[in-house]
Specification:
Layout lengths: L11 H7 L19 E2 L2 E5 L4 E5 L3 E3 L2 E4 L5 E5 L2 E4 L2 E2 H22 L5 H14 L1 H4 L8 E6 L4 E7 L5 E4 L2 E4 L3 H11 L6 H18 L15 E6 L2 E4 L2 H16 L2
Antiparallel strand pairs: 1-4, 1-8, 2-3, 2-12, 3-13, 4-5, 6-7, 7-9, 9-10, 10-11, 13-14
Helix pairs in contact: 2-3, 5-6, 6-7
Amino acid sequence: MSRFVPEIGPRFDALLRANGIEPFAALSTDASALAIPHATTCVAIRSSEGVVIAGDRRATSGNLISHREMDKVMQADMYSAVAIAGAAGTAMEMVKLFQLQIEHYEKVEGQSLSLEGKANQLSLFVRNNLPAAMQGLMVVPIFAGYEPASKSSHIWAYDATGGRYEEKDFVATGSGMLHASTTIRLGWKSSLTLEAAVTLACRALWQAADADSATGGFDAVRGIYPSVATINARGFSFVQDSELSPVFAALSEEAKNA
């Protein structure tokens, strides 16, 4: 006799639970006592052509630098991306499950989620992580994307409870968010091209790294640049280091002559 299997529907986390897997389960120990790498700082900026999403590459464990080349910007699908700040391991797991959620929905429903639908799904994942966040494994992502049908770009910020807030122009998260958002606020305008938005995102991360020890700046010795990506009508694309090099060279020269 076959065992009854309930209808799971398009929710990937429900599929996991039906198979005895609890995503983002709380730890049995206090996470504050563990040396867990944390990721900061990330920004997203809307332009007249699309959206730029970027993050520094440093992960810290307390006062130690645990990783210098961590990628905090991850492609969700062809027209959207997530930037992560918070407990690095938990954040990376969340993004992987989010990517699977989008793919699972498309296979079950036979159509793609809308950009706002994707933002709502990520909100559920952040909310499900709340028990772990209460123990120190907080994740506060940024979600950004482009909607080909309406030819518009959108960005969302989140809080630890899963609260979802669409931002009109730009957003920053992480320990360097104050310095990054101030820099963007001074330089943002509605007519920004995608190229100008990339430069502004780099400037914001530069200023954040200059004032916040947990934010990694451009590393000239190791050739490490922030992760920067654009999303427009052509889809998601990382900005190559060869394109970022002259931007940071100009910022370095500007700092020398200040």
